[in-house]
Amino acid sequence: MRILLPLLALVVGCGPVEPQQGRPDPTAPQLPAPDAWGGTTGPGGPTTSFTPDQLWEGCAFLDGGPDDADHHNLVVPWDGYLLMPWAPEYSNGGISFFDISQPCAPVKVGEATSGDMRETHSVGFASLDGRDYAAVNYHGGLDFEIEEIVGGVQIWDITDVTNPTHVVDVSLPGYLYPDSYQRVTLSLSWQGPIIYAASADNGVHIIDASDPTAPVVLGLYTFEPILRLGSFHVMGNVAMAGSAEGSRTVMMDISDPADPQPLPGGEFFVTDADGVPREYYFSNLGGPWAMFARKEGAGGPIVYDVSNPSAPVRVGDAPSGGNGGYVFRQHEHLFVGESSFAGVYDFSDPSDPVVVGMGMLEGDLDTATPLGNVMVLSVDDDPIDGQASMVVPWREEPDSRGPTVGMSSPRDGDVFQALTSRVGLSFDEMVEPRSVFAGSLRVTREDGWPVDGWFGAQENLVNFTPREPLEANTTYVVTVPAGGITDFFGNATSEEYSLRFSTGDEVSR
Fold first, then answer.
1. Can you give the C-alpha Rg of the chain in angstroms?
2. Rounded distance, CA 123 to CA 82, Å?
3. What are phi and psi of 439, to 5 degrees?
4. SS (H, E, C) 183-223
5. CATH for 452
6. Using CA atoms, how far apart are residues 47 and 371, in angstroms rounded to an integer?
7. Is the bond leading into 398 cis (omega within 30 degrees of zero)?
8. Which pLDDT does position 82 carry in this prediction?
9. Which residues are within 8 A (CB) of 56 and not within 5 positions of it... i.e. 6 or more apart?
10. What is the pLDDT of residue 24?
11. CB-count exposure of residue 58 (10 Å: 0-12, 13-18, 19+)
12. Which of 244, 342, 327 lies closest to 293 in space, CA to CA?
């Protein structure tokens, strides 16, 4: 009857016809072409080839200028440029943008400083109302008016990378310093209008940044027992809460963005091959893999499969003898800062990563960020002046592969999804945030009507947040077409990826 009634209406001329279930609506707006996002302002990542004798040797340094205290962490792509945050844990830092298309001759294109920016282990991005923003960590010191130490999140306007501008500081309840790990903000993720701040023992603060000039703290989730939260990686309706110098990890349900909750079956302790819990310094996501940089005593990466976030499975590890800091994935390689060296691992067999080379830089070398066939090594303590970040070629040929989806939330076939659901994808390498838009990440009802919302990317993770709640008992289609989302080097997705989920009890096919 559900199908016959619209057909009868058409025959007898009784009015407009509703689209049949599972059928395209011919009146639905056509989405842009996958590559119609306009390209980046900057030239993108390096496409230089190297000779064997140039590999594993530094060829350039990235410096933040005269105010740079040489405490560096990661670097990330933005609009065809490389963004480098720099700040010690006690504040007084800044952000710099580089043209790194010639990796051994990088050119600084923009820079700004802030006395209240502190060491940051991630950078969140958002494009709202025609402006582009970045979020980092904030330490304001003693506020004499309220007689309290203040800190939390700092927001920058990066619409013009040649002139980044400090916008606002967000003071978070419970913030305390000088303890470097107990009650400070250690990292953050920005998804649509929401910023999640990983705030160590305090838990995760939830911030409404729909107006980035006037953010509002919505709430705080504190783990029981307390989890020293180092990272909170956000992908659709799922987040991974990772320890800072611990072994406990909690997969979270964030389908209600203001009320994160642990997923049943999603809590686990990162272990070695013998099942013994091992501390890691920081964690990351790439494709279906959760990656952990194991601390002293063994070092190297430990890998879990979290494609089913309610049933994480240990996959493998690669003891290195180092002391892990941060870990990143690029296609079939992992990059781990090991304090005294940086290890690059062949990850083609995730159960048995194999070291393929090492990079060296004076200081506490915690970070090795992959950028195609080069990596940027960064130290956050004991550096040589002006040499806290160094470009190192590690492979002869430039990256020519586009990013590939390895995991999603919701998953294909999921039902009873919340009306407040977001869509998240985990790729096998960092993506260019600019390339994520309505044509390259298509979210529609099953009849083809697009869902309006915010698009964003942070390292390997891509998110879509609807502006309005989803409709009840409705199937939604998510498509990443070939030729749309790109990496830092302009390589686009090569194959279409698609999934369907429903807010009701059945997914229409």
1. 23
2. 12
3. -90, -25
4. ECCCEEEEECCEEEEECECCCEEEEECCCCCCCEEEEEECC
5. 2.60.40.1220
6. 10
7. no
8. 98
9. 357, 358, 359, 392, 393, 394
10. 81
11. middle
12. 327
Q: CB–CB of 12/416 below 8 Å?
A: no
Amino acid at 93: G
Is the residue at 338 inside a domain? Answer: no
How many Å apart are CA 484 and CA 496, to the nearest integer?
Answer: 9
Sheet holding 354-359, edge to edge: 327-330, 333-337, 342-346, 354-359
Report pTM: 0.94
pLDDT of residue 476: 98
Beta strands in 66-130 (DSSP E): 76-78, 81-86, 93-99, 107-114, 124-128
Residue 5 tokens, joined: 């009634």
**Separation of alpha carbons 469 and 289, rounded Å:** 30
Count of domains in the chain? 1
Task: Count CB neighbours of 149 within 10 A.
Answer: 17
Mean pLDDT by 10 residues, the chain (509 residues): 29 38 82 97 97 98 94 98 97 97 98 96 96 98 91 98 98 94 96 98 98 98 98 98 97 97 98 96 98 94 98 97 97 98 98 97 98 98 96 98 98 98 98 98 97 98 98 98 98 98 97
Instruction: Note whether residue 328 is domain-resident.
Output: no
Backbone torsions φ then ψ of 128, nearest 5 degrees: -135, 130
Which pLDDT score is estimated for 297?
Answer: 80
Asked whether residue 450 is assigned to any structural domain, the reply reads: yes
- Domain with 468, as residue range(s), is 4-41+405-502
Token pair listed for 296: 């002293």
Q: What letter represents residue 359's amino acid?
A: G
d(CA 50, CA 181): 40
Q: Residue 391: what pLDDT?
A: 98
453 neighbors 465 (Cβ within 8 angstroms): yes
Strand order in the sheet with 194-198: 187-191, 194-198, 204-208, 216-221
Q: Tell whether 495 is covered by a domain.
A: yes
Look at strands 423-427 and 461-466 and give their pairing.
antiparallel
Residue type, 241: A
pLDDT at 17: 38
SS3 state at 407: strand
DSSP bridge pairs for 126: 133
Complete edge-to-edge strand list for the sheet that includes strand 497-502 = 442-445, 475-480, 497-502
Distance CA 21, CA 442 (A): 19
